[in-house]
Design goal:
Blueprint: E1 3-7, E2 11-18, E3 32-38, H1 40-50, E4 54-62, H2 65-76, E5 79-80, E6 84-87, E7 92-99, E8 104-109, H3 123-128, E9 132-135, H4 141-153, E10 157-160, H5 170-173, E11 178-179, H6 183-190, H7 195-202, E12 208-212, E13 218-222, E14 228-230, H8 243-256, H9 261-275, H10 288-302
Parallel strand pairs: 1-4, 1-9, 2-7, 4-5, 4-6, 9-10, 10-11, 11-12
Antiparallel strand pairs: 2-3, 7-8, 12-13, 13-14
Helix pairs in contact: 1-8, 6-7, 8-9, 9-10
This protein binds adenosine-5'-triphosphate.
């Protein structure tokens, strides 16, 4: 069995659905309210667990009701939460207004995620025993760097999703094996709008890059080899939230199992294409048996 460690955020998304978002000073009556467990770290952890790996989550929740709910959601997906600390104060929250045109406004309050600025005792040993460490940028950079360097010391593969995008210190990139930006993040990191050019430029700093391209699939680039794209299965998308996290969590499992990159990307895009056909983020992430069945069906239809 593979083991994936995730160092990152847990958030409760508080989503208000309205016909039209309020202007400054205005009050509107919305249609519906939902609390949806999320955070890029937690989402990637759930995706990897559903894809069939042992997964441990390193991070923090607050000492509030959201914290207990976030922990329970992870545990129900089979994620080990022994390294998920409970800190004083609130859990991380994202306050989201979604209007009828699908536009959204989001305020993120880091809460407990903001306290994850170092590795706690035992975290490095956990990372050392994993096949891969998944990192994102929703916790302080100091912890992302500490995690990446710990993984590097123990020869553990590091996979970084550079979201929310920000300039990345060279010492962090020096400890990253695989960078997985979406096309907007790739452009923001390099100033290059063509994903192929951006991926090639990023190879100056990391040995492997996957740029996700939404419905157009993903682009893989590595030093010394010709870049290639892997198409995404054609599906009808109803909610793309969490597609990127499903993709990364599933990709990490496939790579940990030793699958070649092209096969791993195909499996990950199958999983991500399934998640966009269902509403929600972690609730939409497919299980291994479903991914395998869909992958077999996709192969039958393309051969
Ligand atoms: P999000 O922020 O919505 O979670 P993202 O911007 O991080 O996503 P995307 O590039 O949009 O990442 O999507 C990640 C992967 O999900 C893509 O590489 C693709 O494999 C799959 N995917 C996304 N949207 C679609 C779609 N409409 N149809 C099929 N596959 C999709």
């Amino acid at each position: 069995m593979t083991h994936i460690a995730v160092l990152g955020s847990t958030n409760m998304d508080l989503v208000a659905y309205v016909a039209k978002a309020p202007q400054r000073g205005e009050t509107v009556t919305g249609r519906e309210f939902r609390t949806i467990p999320g955070g890029k770290g937690a989402n990637q952890a759930v995706a990897a667990a559903h894809a069939g790996s042992d997964v441990s989550m390193i991070g923090a929740v607050g000492a509030d009701a959201f914290g207990s709910q976030l922990r329970t959601t992870l545990e129900h997906s089979g994620v080990d939460t022994d390294h998920l600390r409970t800190t004083e104060g609130p859990s991380g929250t994202a306050h989201i207004v979604v209007d009828d045109e699908g536009g959204n406004e989001i305020v993120v309050i880091p809460g407990a995620n903001g306290t994850v600025d170092h590795l706690a005792p035992g975290d490095e040993a956990l990372i050392a025993g994993a096949d891969a460490l998944l990192l994102q940028l929703e916790i302080p950079l100091a912890a992302v760097l500490a995690g990446a360097e710990a993984a590097r010391r123990h020869g553990v593969r590091t996979i970084l999703t550079p979201s929310p995008v920000q300039s990345l210190p060279p010492e962090l990139l020096a400890s990253i094996d695989l960078l997985v930006p979406n096309e907007h993040e790739a452009a923001a990191l390099t100033g290059l709008t063509d994903p192929r050019d951006a991926a090639t430029a990023l190879l100056d700093q990391v040995p492997e890059v996957v740029v996700t391209l939404g419905a157009a699939g993903s682009l893989y680039a590595s030093r010394g080899a010709e870049p290639f794209t892997v198409p995404a299965p054609r599906v009808t998308a109803v909610d793309s939230t969490g597609a990127g996290d499903t993709f990364v969590g599933t990709l990490a499992v496939a790579l940990a199992e030793g699958r070649p990159m092209r096969a791993a990307l195909t499996w990950a895009s199958t999983a991500a294409s399934m998640s966009v056909q269902r509403p929600g983020a972690s609730s939409s992430m497919p299980y291994r048996s479903e991914i395998d069945a869909q992958a077999a069906s996709n192969t039958r239809h393309t051969s």
